[in-house]
Fold this sequence. Notes:
Layout: E1 2-6, H1 11-22, E2 26-30, H2 46-49, E3 54-57, H3 70-92, E4 100-106, E5 117-118, H4 128-140, E6 149-155, E7 157-159, H5 164-174, E8 187-188, E9 190-192, H6 193-205, E10 211-215, E11 221-222, H7 223-234, H8 244-251, H9 253-260, E12 264-265, H10 268-272, H11 282-291
Parallel strand pairs: 1-2, 1-3, 3-4, 4-6, 5-12, 6-10, 7-9
Antiparallel strand pairs: 8-11
Amino acid sequence: MKVAIAGASGMIGSALSDYLRSKGHTVVALKRNSQPGAQVFLGVDSDYLSEFDAVINFAGENIAGKRWTSEQKKLILSSRTTTTDYLAECLKKTQGKPKVFINASAIGIYGNRGDEQLDENSSAGKGFLADTCTAWEASAKKASREGLRTVRLRIGVVLGKSGGALAKMLLPFQMGAGGILGSGKQYMSWISIHDAVRAIEFILENDQLEGAVNMTAPNPVTNAQFTQAMGKVLHRPAILPAPSFALKLILGDMAQEMLLEGNRVLPKKLEKAGFKFQYGDVESALAKEISGAGSGKTVQAM
């Protein structure tokens, strides 16, 4: 399979590129055009995309890279919708190929939902992340060419040592300064980077999967449970909580939506289609990523 990837330099994009190449697929990274007023990607139009079997889009400003000022929020939104709009318009004009378009989204679309169990049929929530994901998915839906399967990939917290949330949490835990965030009761819907890339390949090869697809492990945990697992895997205490007021003072709105709130998201479509998780419990996923000692056992959904 020949696959084009936008956002191939990010944590998921780079891991996926390496994985797909190791499985014999051809992967080409789409390069952003930095010239003002120019087309979004260098050399990319409908004719160029017609050379590929699949197009995958992860492009977008790092959502946790900077404090959420009003300007940063605009950049987070526009960086996603602009790139997705462009790819969708190009894909609408293709004929025959590509057969599938996978566009990243996030479980932030569900908003803060406490312990409510959520699947792909659940409604969108409220807040900046939910609104951003809703607009992002609306852009992806514009790739409406007949015969083009479109997947809106709702990605959870990806556990990968090379980047993302886990990389930022490792140092304080290793120093014995790890602890719960806020109340610790908020749910974290996560997935190991190893299962994430396997799931994307599974989606590429399974025509029955389209529309919204949750990419999370089958066993979401509370922040307190995650913290306990981190401490156990690292053999470090996890007793220094981060109070809500301090997180809000340092990070503003980002702290509320990304750290102090959460949702309990289940991968119903993936499991129904027959995907088997190698790392279905958080402790084995953390052990695998941090020390290479994860059991890799398959765990069914709660």
